[in-house]
Structure formats: structure tokens, C-alpha cells
Amino acid sequence: MKILSIVAILLLLNCNFSDMDIEDDAFHEEIPIHIETWYFEAMSGNESIIFMITLAGKTIAMIGTQFYENGIVMHDERKVFISFYVSDEIPYISVDGKEIMKGYLKDGKLCYNISFSSKNISLKLLFQNRTKGWKSDTWIAIPNMVAKGIIIFNGKEYEIDGKGYHDHNIFYIWQPFLETGYIDGKIIAGNISLFWAKLMKKPLIQQNFAIYSNSTYHVLSVSIKCRDYKLNHGHFIPTTFFVNGEGINVTMHVYAVHFISLPFIKYWRFHIHSKGEVMGNKIETCDIAEYMLFSIF
Predict the structure, then answer these.
(1) Does CATH number 2.40.128 belong to domain 178-294?
(2) Which of 115, 123, 140, 253 has the fewest CB atoms nearer than 10 Å to its CB?
């Protein structure tokens, strides 16, 4: 699960966007008492995979994998490790002596090798950026990547050749007490992408924005409307979204929901069908979005 979100941090910081460098994706050892996450997402045909690394400083590592077919979760696993290595110079993490993430530059492209195996699933994936990554003081995002590789689940092999997304975030323990949550998602179509978010401050203050990326990136002011609420695990969640403004006119319908509950967090991952227009480009894609609520009780 994506415990930490880039949008949650935006609630409290006056973010200035700039191009990210590969070193920005390393561990931030200089920051005291925090959690860092590296989140990778790939969609290929009917399959999608989430791979997430969460570090509580240099004391505990948690590896999460979720595998979906047509948006339905087939595998959901989290494993905790106390024997691991993380670099504060480059994006590199190993657990129990085995490399699970390595970031590097090749022919000017940001690349990541991801590999992991457990009892029922193993994966070996390559992510390579198609659009520029951006950063602020406490997070980075690469919103459009090529994702290729192999997943073996319950003895069956799946070839991955599709689109990907990566972000890296820093989480502070006081955030659940100061923020309500967020809804965010992305549209990835060819060489363009649109990241959109509705931020929910306390009390009941909301902020909408989007970031359009192609050869560069642009922060946009947009309207985000949520409709067709349905009861799910004790909360009414939206299942239709409308994003409009500054060359953006997109309607998104949720076709699958995966609920995850962790301490202080209630989280819904949506597989969505998106259709509309993004900066003059007609789009119709399937993507992933999420809805997170902080809960201290």
C-alpha cells in the first residue's frame, strides 16, 4: 500500500517543482524520525502490479506486492525484514543480501531494476522514464514510464510490456493529526501523462491541482468533482470523477476497488477507465487511482 503520498506533503509545504536527479531517489539519512517509501506501478494488458518498499529509518523494511487481473486483486502480501541495506547516494536497496531495487542512468534515461520473490509470486521488472520526473523538498515522481519484465504467480508466467509509474516519498508521524486525506490518480497515454489530486485539509478545506507531463511538465488549476458514492467498509467512497480545466476534460469511472486498512490509515485503490481530452489529445485508458483517509482511532 502506498502509505505515504506525494499529495499529502503538498498540503503543508509551498512546493517549488524542479527536475529530479537520480540521486534524489536515494535514502534521506539526514532526516530524523521518518518513513520513506518507493512505489512502483505497472499495467500491461489485463494485469497490473504494485511493488512498494517502506523503510522506518534504517531499522525495519516492509515489502508490499499486490497483483491484479482486470482490477481484481489476486495476490496481496507484505513482508517485514530487519536485514537490509539502503544507499543514501543512489536508489539502491537490498534485503537479506538480495538486490530488490536499483536505479541508474542509461542513454540519458532513468532506469530501475526491480526484482523480488516470495512463496507465491516472483517478479523481475525494468522501468524506464518516458517523461521528465519532478521533485520538491520531500518527494519525487516519474509519472510515465515503460514497464517490461516477467511476473510468475502461482506457477503461471505473465509477460509485462506496458506502462509504469514511480514515486518516492517521505512521511512524518504528525501528518494523520493535521490532515484528512486525499484522492489522486494518473492518466498515462503514450508519451503524455496527467497526475491529478484532490487534497483534503482540516477542517473540510480542499485543494485541487493537476500536473501535465510530456517533454516537460506543467502545474494546472483544475476542477475535480466526485460522484456516485457507494458504501465500502463503513465509508462512502466516490466511484466517478470529473477533471476539468486548462485543456483538461476527462471522465473516470471506477471498475474495481481494493480496500486496505493499516494503523491510522484507511485506503482504497481504484482501477479506473478514463476517457476524454488532455491538452488536445483524445484519450481512453485504464489507470489506477487511490483514496486515502487518515484515521487516528
Answers:
(1) yes
(2) 253
